């Protein structure tokens, strides 16, 4: 489809999914604001993630840690050290290398050459990806710290707190959703690479055992891929990609990405990382606190290893939008999974100027609103209202007409098939529930 990204960016702004950040002041590069519909989409996405990753499992709990952390956290995690050297960034895939890593740079160029691409580099810069901020009120006495560069560390620094305040036994996981900030050199491709973004992560603690940890690793890899597929992303647009040894992050022993084929190429949506004992042992070293786990049954004491699933909420939202966008039979339709769609249904009185229809429709609207996010539309003709709801992905449109007044049933029109069905008002809630959860 021509100009797919332009169409999506324009639809997002026009219908209230995503606006450029601080737009009336000329914007702020790499920042985006979610409008009423985008906010619902993101909310639904996070809710689905939380439901499957935390609520439906007995071995995972959730936390919500501070964005601001003691700056020593970032020394321990390796972020300050790994990002203060002069770096060049590959303009194609945004991988960064210290300029003294000549060998790695050469290998990287060869990697692109194999794909018939020519790697171009940004000018070397002394570069810290962490977004610095100052705390304190007295000028000259302010403490420098950072807005967190990943949400991961908020979990690991609380490892002992979580253990001591719960009855969790290894293996177990700690999940978190929250904002992270990175001074990206090259933000772009709409929300794909932003300065401020949201992550959804699981840190899963396992015994320090090669076989056991790889079993868990494979389980989470598979589970995360299934999650995207179950929410309706086209299967042939998703793939796994293993990180080559020279692209592994400083903490990772193994890493696979889940990638989605966007109009701007195959791009990372989520990373599944084997972090080994990197985080806990570094925090033990830097804080001087014991970060080990004691196994009551075997009487062993050890630093657990960590399997991480780290996804971006904004990237996932963008990829779901791209995947859902269709143009067919003279209409634009967002075929979002009903669980993700901002509105589950829209309610229309057939005619705006017939008070008995409007009254009945309004009653149905108010009743359904107790259970679902529902839109109301009484403008123009029914065709225009369908068109408008298709474009924002509303899976069902409910019309209240003169028959409704006599028979207590309504017309329910399906977004994807455009087929219509009469449903009893008393059965409407169950009907929608069943369809949404199918
Ligand atoms: P990339 O290689 O694209 O910069 P990364 O490998 O640095 O990503 P991770 O550190 O593994 O990313 O972060 C986990 C997830 O957080 C990514 O898979 C992505 O979904 C999201 N994410 C990371 N950086 C950004 C960003 N600048 N904007 C939006 N989402 C991001």
Descriptive overview:
This protein is an alpha+beta fold. The chain has helices at 4-14, 36-55, 72-76, 79-82, 102-114, 152-156, 159-164, 210-230, 278-287, 313-324, 355-369, 382-391, 402-407, 428-436, and strands at 18-20, 32-34, 60-62, 86-89, 96-98, 125-126, 131-135, 143-147, 172-181, 196-206, 238-242, 254-262, 265-276, 293-295, 300-302, 305-312, 325-328, 331-334, 345-349, 374-376, 396-400, 409-414, 420-424. It has a seven-stranded mixed β-sheet. The chain has a five-stranded mixed β-sheet with strand order 20-19-21-22-23, sandwiched between helices. The longest helix has 21 residues, at 210-230. The two termini are 29 Å apart. Bound molecules: adenosine-5'-triphosphate (ATP). Adenosine-5'-triphosphate is lined by residues 94, 150, 182, 184, 193-194, 197, 199, 268-271, 310-312, 314-315.
Write the layout of secondary structure elements.
Layout: H1 4-14, E1 18-20, E2 32-34, H2 36-55, E3 60-62, H3 72-76, H4 79-82, E4 86-89, E5 96-98, H5 102-114, E6 125-126, E7 131-135, E8 143-147, H6 152-156, H7 159-164, E9 172-181, E10 196-206, H8 210-230, E11 238-242, E12 254-262, E13 265-276, H9 278-287, E14 293-295, E15 300-302, E16 305-312, H10 313-324, E17 325-328, E18 331-334, E19 345-349, H11 355-369, E20 374-376, H12 382-391, E21 396-400, H13 402-407, E22 409-414, E23 420-424, H14 428-436
Parallel strand pairs: 3-9, 19-20, 19-21
Antiparallel strand pairs: 1-2, 4-5, 4-6, 7-8, 9-10, 10-16, 11-12, 12-13, 13-16, 14-15, 17-18, 21-22, 22-23
Helix pairs in contact: 2-10
Bound molecules: adenosine-5'-triphosphate (ATP).
Adenosine-5'-triphosphate binds at residues 94, 150, 182, 184, 193-194, 197, 199, 268-271, 310-312, 314-315.
